[in-house]
Specification:
InterPro entries: Amidohydro-rel (IPR006680), Metal_Hydrolase (IPR032466). This protein is mainly alpha-helical. It has helices at residues 3-8, 18-27, 58-62, 69-83, 85-95, and strands at residues 11-12, 33-34. The chain has five helices and two strands. The chain has a two-stranded parallel ribbon. The protein is globular.
């Protein structure tokens, strides 16, 4: 990834299979991955191989091998709060506390 793209290009995790998430994490720096999902229930269907709802994307991140807690935090919330600073301020206002961590 070029240095310009490494600070301006981001990829989300709205991918409906483990192999796709594994590839994403292998080729894209963790700092450039933002957690994403459909609205729960938007994609109707259950994977016949796993019995899980197709749109449950969190479980794919949970199953990624080799991520430490800091990297998981970055994907699930830290990167979004860094990329969208107004979101961080809004959450601080709603939660009534400082230190929503990025």
């Amino acid at each position: 990834m070029t240095s310009t793209c490494s600070t301006t290009c981001f990829f989300d995790t709205c991918v409906y299979h483990q192999a796709g998430i594994d590839l994403l994490a292998r080729v894209i720096p963790i700092d450039n991955i933002l957690f994403a999902s459909e609205m729960l229930g938007a994609v109707k269907g259950i994977d016949p191989d796993t019995g899980h709802h197709v749109d449950d994307t969190k479980r794919y991140i949970d199953a990624l091998q080799g991520l430490d807690d800091e990297q998981r935090h970055k994907i699930f919330e830290g990167n979004a709060l860094r990329v969208y600073p107004r979101l961080k301020r809004r959450l601080e206002n709603i939660c009534g506390r400082q230190g929503v961590s990025a």
